[in-house]
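Appendix B. One record, verbatim.
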Amino acid sequence: MRDRYEEDYEAPYSPSARHYANLSKQEMDKLFYLNSIRSTLFEIMKQVYSSTWQENESTLLYADGNQRAQWMFASKMLSVYGQSIPQVKHLLNSVRPEMQEEELKDKRVELIMKLVRTKIGQHWMNTFDQDDGWKYVAQNLYGEANQLRSEEVDSFLLTIDQISIINDLLQGRGSKYRLGYNTNNAKSVEVIKHHCNKEYVDKAAKILVELHRYIDKAQKAKAASMPIRVLLDLKILRERLPWSFIKQEFGSDNNSDSSYNDYTNVYSPDIHPYKGDKNYTLMMSDFEKEFK
């Protein structure tokens, strides 16, 4: 028997399908930016399992169909979160950095086309951008009248997970996946190449990944500037990256122009700003292993 999930529900290049593949950034986020809904689902699951079995037994035993559908959807939606990272990583690793953005866009279109060729995918696209739209999706997937097989539901939710990750990357929210990609990845690599010593030019993409790894989680200017100073002190960078690049690539919430210049000024006659800093010493050791 043919998998109904793969069954053509709508012609792949119909006007409606093309419309879904060419949504605006805002429309894409309404359908595939899932951070808020995952937070909501997590709170639901916490409420279900936060008390004792004796307190919850009756609730679980006599839950109505809607409650059960919502619990099952919440549990499954959270359990598949991030399962598609290996596929996206493979996609990024299979093309040159300057081609990654276009490849991700093409893959997002391909996956959306896969969705809109199924009834379950059409249901998501038509209801998920509404308030509490997830409840209708939950009922469609796990309600008492549902006729979908478990493998169809799994395939559908994994497709949604992959689209949401790709959408996050394309919308500039990709650092949490640690894939070393952002919407200006190719241009950023070129900037780093220009400021590297020649023996490290071929490691510019890796340098960008490591900078995001440390700077994205830094809360203060000293910590946010530290990776650049380490790269300078190790002679990996021949000159510091411009503040305009740092601000655009990493944001300025955790740093400022003046602080960045002070902490990365290798020609300053003042005492080394990281003298005696254990984190600086550890980062020096880590970067020596990574790039030497």
